Amino acid sequence: MNRPQDILTNLSSKSNQMATTLNMSGFANKDSLLGTDEKSDNVMNRTIGLDNHGLVSLQLQIIKVNKELDLHTRLLDNIDQQVDSTNSNLQKVQKKLAMLNKRIKSGCSCLILQPYAFLAYLIVFFFGH
């Protein structure tokens, strides 16, 4: 008779499992995207032997890469917006085509019957007298 309590407990445990899974996958995705801390150690090793000119050069390269990534992000966002717009336009056209198709199918029987009705009229008109 504790059915609502059982449902609540079940949902709570499922929620905790999903949160744990999402958090773990988030860390895995972060590591795959950003890499582990070994890369930061590698960057530190690269900068150890550099003088001021070398450090400035490295910083400029990093700034250029960041600007390029920002540009690509904006381009991808623009493409995403265009795809969304095209998708909504396509859905509108598909709805209009579906309505047109329904009209044609419902009107098709009338179009087929019209020549037969005209033929029957001609037969009655010419041979009925």
From TrEMBL:
<feature type="coiled-coil region">
    <location>
        <begin position="76"/>
        <end position="103"/>
    </location>
</feature>
<dbReference type="GO" id="GO:0015031">
    <property type="term" value="P:protein transport"/>
</dbReference>
<dbReference type="Pfam" id="PF05739">
    <property type="entry name" value="SNARE"/>
</dbReference>
<keyword id="KW-0813">Transport</keyword>
<keyword id="KW-1133">Transmembrane helix</keyword>
<feature type="transmembrane region" description="Helical">
    <location>
        <begin position="104"/>
        <end position="127"/>
    </location>
</feature>
<dbReference type="InterPro" id="IPR000727">
    <property type="entry name" value="T_SNARE_dom"/>
</dbReference>
<keyword id="KW-0175">Coiled coil</keyword>
<keyword id="KW-0472">Membrane</keyword>
<feature type="domain" description="T-SNARE coiled-coil homology">
    <location>
        <begin position="63"/>
        <end position="100"/>
    </location>
</feature>
<keyword id="KW-0812">Transmembrane</keyword>
<keyword id="KW-0653">Protein transport</keyword>
<protein>
    <submittedName>
        <fullName>Syntaxin-51-like</fullName>
    </submittedName>
</protein>
